[in-house]
Amino acid sequence: MNQQAKVGARRVVWVALLLVSTLFWFIAFRFVSFPFLIVTWTLFAKVGRRDLRPSLLAWTVWLALSFSPIDVFPIPKGGPPRLVPLVMGLPRRETLEGAKRGEVLLGGCMVSGFEPKYYLVW
Predict the structure, then answer these.
(1) Whose C-alpha in 9, 26, 49, 93 is 20 to 30 A from the C-alpha of 70?
(2) What strand order describes the sheet that includes 82-88?
């Protein structure tokens, strides 16, 4: 196999990995990792013909942040930054009262198993 064929096969594998990663991001939804996924695609489009290492580095950061138990909540809630637990499923009355006080964040009833455990809220 010549050098051009190896490089072409490497790019095809990398594009497939990026597509699978993008689909995984929709399942393991993390606000904090999304900018790194965009940077990965941008670096691949800009310098992917010459070197895949910058894109691979951004993808590695994206992967680490996608499996992080902490996410950043994009909607300001007021007050100082703090870590708030995410509660999934049908909330009890005590949980609803805690959510009104800002002690917990309600995540809904659809549980995928990839939800973060905590959110950083402002």
Answers:
(1) 93
(2) 70-72, 118-121, 82-88, 105-108
The pTM assigned to this predicted structure is 0.78
Cα 77 to Cα 101: distance, rounded to the nearest angstrom: 11
What DSSP element (H or E) covers 71? Answer: strand 70-72
How far apart (Å, rounded) are the C-alpha atoms in residues 24 and 20?
6
| DSSP letter string, 72-107 | E-SS--SSS-EEEEEEESSPPHHHHHHHHHTSSEEE
H helices, E strands: number in the chain:
4, 4
Q: At residue 71, what are phi and psi to the nearest 5 degrees?
A: -130, 165
8-25 pLDDT, tens per residue?
888 889 999 999 999 999
| Start-to-end C-alpha separation, the chain | 55
The pair phi, psi for residue 87, each rounded to 5°, is -110, 120
Confidence check: pLDDT of 42 > 90: yes
| Whole-number Å distance between alpha carbons of 8 and 122 | 45
